[in-house]
Fold:
Amino acid sequence: MMFPALLIVVLNNYLPMFGVFIAFKNINYTDGIWGSPWIGFKNFEFLFSSQSIWRITRNTVLYSLTFMVVNLVLSVGIAVAISELRGRLLAKGYQTLIIMPYFLSMVVVSYLVYAFLNPDRGFVNVLLESFGADKVFWYSETEYWPYILTLVNAWKSVGIGAVIYIAAIAGIDPEYYEAAVIDGASKWRQTIHITLPSIQPIIIIMTILSMGHVFNSDFGLFYQVPMDAGALYPVTDTVDTYVYRVLMELNDIGMSSAAALVQSVLGFFLVLATNSAVRKINREQALF
Structure:
């Protein structure tokens, strides 16, 4: 029964790892990948010698950490709220509504955001003008976008996280809650002393796995949603968008592979470091 799933994992996740050697070659399309010469670490130089390295690294890491914290809090909160609903049909309806944005293309999401933030006819500017305030040119004002991107990411991603935690809460033995009710515990105390400790292992595992993506960013979120506006680069430019723009000019897949390899290696060591920290605190809660 496990074989089909394992085969998909091998084909999609492990087989492409043989392409890592492309990061160390100067790809010549005439000679092909195998015939192209080896050039050592030269493909890595463009990323580390860039004047924008500090900006794109700062943006990538800070956004990733912010998204992790915000999405975790919202996902757990929504999961606890939905699990308290007594009507199964109502609970299923809410689950469906919150998970739907996860399946939307980021291109579609970018146009939804544009409908709200259009400088002339956007919903937000129309609302501001109705209250006598001045219009905001959203796609040229950098100070708003850290909040906008966090909100959009949460709206799109919180649902899938909430479904995972709802499943974890469903596995808690109801006798714990029955005993708490007999002792006079309120819903708040039941959540603090039963629900959260019971799903703590799932929260820790999800956090450890998320640490592997700290140096990666959602390309669609940071490229499509801000409409690749140059004025917003100080707060929307990440490693992925920077590499994409540079390589669209150079058309060098070796450099692209080098950047992806750096992100993967850093993410791998972050997962190991996070898991090691968890093991020192509580060995049973560690992922491995």
